[in-house]
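In response to a reviewer's request, we include the raw inputs and outputs for one of the modeled complexes. The two entities were modeled together in a single run.
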Amino acid sequence: MKKQQYINNEYLLEMNNIHKSFGSVEVLKGVDFGLKGGEVHVLAGENGAGKSTLMKILCGIHTADQGVIKRNGEIVNFKKVADSARHGISMIHQELSMIKELSIVDNIFLGQEITRFKFFNNPKEQEKKTTAILNKLNINIDCRRKVEEFAVSTQQMFEIAKALTFDAQIIIMDEPTSALNKPEAERLFDLIAELKSAGHAIVYISHKMDEIYRLADKITVLRDGEFIISSAASELPENKLVAALVGRELNQQYPNRTTKVGSDFFTVKNYSVEKKYGHGKLVDNISFSLKKGEILGIAGLEGSGNHELFYSLFGAYGINNSGNVVMDGRKLKIKNPKNSIEHNNMMLLTHDRKGDGLILDMSIQENTSLASMKRFSNKLTFMNKQKERKTAELFQNKMNIKCSSVNQCVGELSGGNQQKVVLAKCLETNPQVLLLDEPTRGVDVGAKKEIYDLMNQCTDAGISIILITSEMSELLAMSDRILVMHLGEITRELAKNEATPENVLAAAMGKVI
Amino acid sequence: MGLGAYFNGDGAFFNWDTHRDTLRAISVYGMLSCAMTLVIITGGIDLSVGSLLALSSVTFSLLTLHHSIPVPFAIAACLFAGVLCGGTSGVLISKFKVQPFIATLAMMVFARGIAKFISGSKKISTYVKQGDEYVNIEMPKIFDFLNSRILNDNLSIVTIIMVVCIIICFILINKMRYGRQLFAIGGNENAAKISGVPVNLVKVITYALSGFFCAIAGICQAAQEYQGDPEAGVSYELTAIAMVVIGGTSLNGGRGSILWTLIGILTMGYLEKILSINAVGEDKRLILTGIIIVGAVLFQKRKN
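The model returned the following structure tokens for the whole complex.
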């Protein structure tokens, strides 16, 4: 990596008094932000605090209504992404922006192709450069392969490779680890350290506390579009940061589990799931049982088969499974999601809220009743909208869903509120077994706490929960018992008091004890 | 409407007969647009509506004129044929995952072929061969009935049928579970599936319903023309799509409304009428129609 010349105290970039409104909503209310070379600057804030908007202004996707951006002391004006790219700014988006059908190299050079005679692409040169960058990232694959062939986490690494290809001096990473597993995240952190020492500046947006303190040199906190504090990481301890984030002191992030756990309620025996395409098993002969009112955590890195286990138990992964599933003494037939909801009393909250969780064009009310429409319609299938609205309003109050009314489109809500709507939909089906797949992904601190409280209320009401989460502290705090999966098999079962981040991770990486 | 009042074609616009005829002319298109609205809300498309109309119109004429089958049975047969063809498209699309464009394109060609096959590629009219000579047989009453007007000749029966179709669609879409499921599938098929919506079934029903409305349109078409023409309804699918799109229903699915489709139907119908009573040639009418479609869609976009 080329050593940048200026590692000094001058700001590489300054943003002063940035204002931005979308329609009548003021998203940024005069935010200041300064970035120095060789620093990892964490930008923290709850969902809807304006972090992403600020960064989109910085890389030219949005333009500020008011305010000044200075690059190396000179005022600049970014009207489009190409403008900011010219000034060495590159952003790695939270949602992947790769075009799946194109090759890795084509994606990396998309829009900024190396050309011959200004007209013809120069694929050889592009491939050479891409391969060099990928090697640096320890990815040894043919860059002419299509992006869709790779796991989401690998795709994320391609995004990073893209930023590096253009030798961006300022790299913005918007929750880059949300799709990465632990070893991949580690690789990313090593890379960030390397970039830092080469004089690059990194803006890092994250919700994960351990990441923040591991990486940050400086932390800036936004709340509701306002600048709250900017301080060296060493001078901003965790409790103060949380206080700044939420505007109030949170003594305890996780509520205590007080539910009295009953006897075995849901048993899975010798369960296997075949791959949909190709041969092999995603889940290989696993057995476990779930007690009434229990939260059973399932840990696993990417490829462990835990997501597929959920989809399969819920009947959303075809019927290529084998084994016995028994609920309350009754052997279950797994057919399809409809059958699982109506006859097996199960419900799945998926890890991909926008992909298969919500219908963004529909209202809160319509999403809430979506999975239990039968109960909101009469024999002639006419909908009872009155009843629907009342139920949605009940959930709105109970879950503290922030919205103008239950008729608001869920697409307009923040991530945390969207997630609450999904949860409302799940609960409205009156499940006895609730499969929660990453229930707090992309959700801010305050809403997370509320979701944990809701989980406790559910188990108090006798619902049994199986929980998949990639956040270790959440897994340890919320689970009564933890199963660890690795490559489709259960490698370890841990009681709450014996589970530590170390032994969970070790088992997840395949260390059988 | 304002445009019509201004360019009133020497007062023709102020004559109710003009409106009656406009409404009559758009009725068949309106029924097809009902079918199209349902399909487009799911994010699909149905290119076969014009051909299904022809098939139904030929079947109806054949059964009533040549085979003297009682009218109720003939109607039932047409509706059955429509539902069967539409349902077949639906099964191809949902079960076999054929893209709607392709499945209904195939159905469009196939149904046209069947229409020509059963009619011998001839128009089916009252002019029939009996023995060695051609005679004009008597027209069954149903043709005249469908083609008649009520309220002192002020409202065509076919217009009433269109309105009934629209009301049925309105209830289906806005009041019933089925409608909610349509929007759910169009909005996010994966989420709908996870939430227990029987996606495949709803799709089959939707295309079958589309075939049903096409069959009704075909019967009306036969009555209006006093014959079953296997060449009828060519490019009607495009008119129907235009009407739906002018109404602001998104081709991506998940958004749409039958009442806005009605506005689309009226817009297209009146545009045609206003231009023709002002003696604008067909060439210019087509040019203007193209512009209006784009204008209406841009207007809708801005509103969102």
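As requested, we also summarize the result in words. The CA atoms of residues 83 and 209 of chain B lie 6 Å apart. Chain B has 13 helices and four strands.
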